[in-house]
Each structure stands twice: as C-alpha cells, then as structure tokens.
Design a protein that fits this description.
The structure holds two protein chains of two kinds. Chain A is of the alpha/beta class. Chain A is built from 13 helices and nine strands. In chain A, helix 4 runs parallel beside helix 6 and helix 9 crosses helix 12. The longest helix of chain A is centred in the C-terminal third of the chain and has 23 residues. Chain B has one domain: Vaccinia Virus protein VP39 (Rossmann fold). Chain B is built from six helices and seven strands; from the N terminus they run αβββααβαββαβα. In chain B, helix 3 runs parallel beside helix 4. Chain B starts with 6 loop residues before the first helix and ends in a 9-residue tail after the last helix. Classes of the chains: A alpha/beta, B alpha/beta.
Chain lengths: 368, 177
Amino acid sequence: MRKLPLLARLAGYRLAHATGTPRQLPVNLTVSVTYSCPSRCATCDIWQKKVDDLSVDEYGRLFPTLEKVPVWVTVSGGDQFIRKDLDEIVRLIRTQIEPSIINIPMNGIITERIFQLLPKIAHHTVGAQLVLNLSVDGIGEAHDRIRGAEGNFEKLKLAAGLIHDLKKTYPHVVLGVHTVISKLNVAEIPNIEREARAIFRPDSYIAEVAENRVELKTMDKDITPTIADFRRATAHLGNVIRAHRSRHPVARLVESLRLEYYELAARILEENRQVIECYAGLASAHLAPDGHVWGCCVRAESLGNVREQGYDFRTVWNGEQADAFRASVKAHACACPLANASYTNLLLDVPSLARVTANMVGLEGTGT
Amino acid sequence: MSMNGDRADVRAFVDQVAVEFAAESVLADVELGEPRTRGMRVVAPGEWADVESADLVVSFDAPERERGWEEHLAAVSKRARKVLLVFARNAERFGQRKAPDTAHLAGVLWQLGRVREHAYLGLPRLVGSSRVVHVPAGALVRKTARLHAFVVDMSPRTPQARRRLRVAGPEAPGTDR
C-alpha cells in the first residue's frame, strides 16, 4: 500500500470521507512519546498528566503495522528529550515507517540530553527530512515567563547553534522556529518574529494559535487571542513570509501551507465551523504516549489502545470507536484550527491545494 | 592516499584551524610530513597510545589506512584537548569507491565531539581557484574534490558538562582530552 502515489492516496481519503471506503491508514501521524515536561507553560498543562509510556520494544512491534503509509511523522511531547531512548524511537520511525518528513518540536531545555541525542537523531534520519522546530513564544525573559522555565531562551540559543552545526554535516536537517500565538504575546508577534529570525537564523518561521485542547489540559484556560488581534498578527507573518521566501523546498512548502493555514485558522475562529472538511481520523492520527490512538489531539478521544490490540494499529484504526469518531467529524460536530490536522485538510481541499501549489512555485503572491 | 599535490592546502588548513582554536600544541599523523606548524609533533602509527595530549590533533586518511578506523579515531580523539581535525578521501567524488560514505564518517565523528565545520580540499584547477571550500558547497566541488576535512570541537559540549568538569577538577576523567 505504501507505494501508492501520494496523490492517489489523497484521492482515496476524499473517497473514504464521502463513502466510508476504502479504509486507509493515516498519511499524517503524530507520535507523542511522553507527557512529562520541565516547562510550565501558561498555555499548556500537559506535564500534569502521568501515564505509562510505550517502551522502545512496544514501538518496535507497533510501527511495522503502520505499513509505511505515514509520510509526515511528528514526534511530540511533553518534552521528548526527557526520554533517553528518543534516538532509538526516531530510528525505528525512520526504518519501520519510512516517512519522508520527521518533525520534532523542541523546547530546548534539557541541553545536555539534546547535545547527546540530536546528532544521533540526525544520523538516523538520513534519507528523510528532519525538521527541528524550536518553540519561541517571546524574546528573552518574556519567553521564559510564558514558558515557565527560567533560562530557557538562552538554552534555545545553544540548541540552535548545535542544529546549525548539524545542518553543515547533515543537509537533510531543517531548522524552524515556532510561536504559539496566545493572549500573552499576540501584541508582540511582529517583534518576536523579527528578533527570532535574527537570533536563531531559522530556515522557516511559523506560528499557531493557542487553543483549548483536551490533550494539553487547557480546556478552561483563557488563552486564545481575539480574532482581530490574531488577524493583525497573521497579516504581519503572511507579509514576512511573502517577502522572505525560503529556498529550502520543505521549508518553502511549510511556508506555503502556513499562508493558507493562517487564513483558515482565522476563519474557523470567526465562524466556529469547519471551513473546509476535516480529515482527522481518516488522513491524520495521533498516538498518545500510553498507546491510545486519537483522531486528533484537540478532542483526544481514544479510538482504542494498541496495547489491547496486540500493537496492531490497523485493528484500532478500523474499529467501531474510530468509525464513530469519523462520523462525528464528518457531521461537523467540532471545529478547530489545529495546525497539524489542518495541513492535511488543506492538501485534501482542491482549491486550497491549488493555492498552496501556486504559492510554492511562485505563481501566486498570496496564499489567501 | 597521497597528498602530493594537496600538501600545501592541507597544511594551510591545519594552520588556520590551529589559529581559530588557539592551539599551542599539535599532534599529527606522520603522513602530514615534516612539522612546520608551531608546536607540532608528528606521531608514527602505533605510537598514539603513548603520546601526551595536545590542543589540536590531526588525523590523515585513517578510514583508508586503519583497520577498525572507528576505534582508531576514537583513540586518537582522546589525545585532543581542543580540536580534532580529520582528513579523509572525499567519498562523494566521482569514481571514489573505497572511502566510507560521508554520512557514516560524520556519524562517527559526531559521537566523538561536535563537528563544527567541514570542507573540501584538493580541487582541480578547472573547478576553482579556492584552496578550501567550506560547506555548503556546490555539486561540482563535492564531486571533484579529492579530500574532505572535518573540524571536530572536543571541548565539553554543554554548560552542564563544563560545570561538572570544573567541579570534578583537573583529575576528572575526560579533562585530559
């Protein structure tokens, strides 16, 4: 099944959304390897969750059952670098799933562990694109306050220096900077974007709106910016992307998707509905640290646990709970601007895909 | 590997790295020839285990010459207090068959220290007048250069590691590198 061209697979997801068949494994997978995290972010309480994380051996049984379908794998947390065996998990992802892109968002806090593991991770991922996204929510102490981690900003500089050195040896490494736009920093986005570009010299700069997610235990937090503020921030970011297009193909694709995403996210916040169809649970999935499979991390509803199904992802994916989740999403029972799922949704929406493609190749000045 | 035509470029690169890292003492494979860099001593094969450490250690063509070259480089790297400079055949060159591929060599070196730079040397005159081309390099450079040099920073990699060594004192394992 893996050798199916991506476009054919995407067509299959559209067909499945409309008719219920064919059943395909997800092309976009997020693997959360732990909830543990040394950060105490104002926008996230995931660190409070305590579960029994899947072991490397368990991942080694699970990943082959994904049948090499996922093309984009995000390795998420918590802080993934809490795990001493992160390099081994990433190696299994590379060898057993063989995605084209492996994306690791990083808070950059556990410096010594990062310096130990990141060179190994870069080595294990040769043949794919390794996107390392540093989380930057402010500049200097402002960042440390929002992230609840003293000295975090200075540590991010060390991590960025290491990644720049890795990029010289491993051309498949891409450095990104990622900002969560919340009420706490929305007024500062232009400054954050400018300073972060100057300090970290990333291949791409992207942002995402802070939202209420079950996964992050933020359902009661008042963190989402007003629509007007969010639009002002993303208008600036869109202008900057258009003015400084990356030459790196993966970074350029991400930028083009972001241009579309910023407009989509704003409209979802304004209209509180699925502006384009959502394929969470069909084309994208989330594997929680304890083996639960979710359609998305915003709802974080278990479709089943791989530990109870002999580590067979497909058994969970084709189960009744998964079908019920898909039916609920199809019925527009929810709407959210989750960036990860939105990427897949944009690729499956023909007008959006056309705009992203045109923007990628420079035929269109704006993606919105 | 002969460095007949590239000796001047190699020596110039060694001098440049020595200056960048303020290296006052240098150990080099005997293949590098008569010592010309200040503070340099050449080391014959089999003598590496007995020599005192130095700020800069230069290894030449180890992957080609040494059986178990990964272990050899690990042993040599322990003699380097500040920086290890590794010259190897450029595995990306057209027709180059024996050399370990760049990713393999880089993976070994990243386990020894922090690979700060790598560069291509021994370029045909037709390709360019530069003696050393640092990455990112164009395809023509990568496909024609005879040598590949890696600059491996051997200082403790993180503030925590440096603090630990300071606390442990000069006798701590790993301080004499």
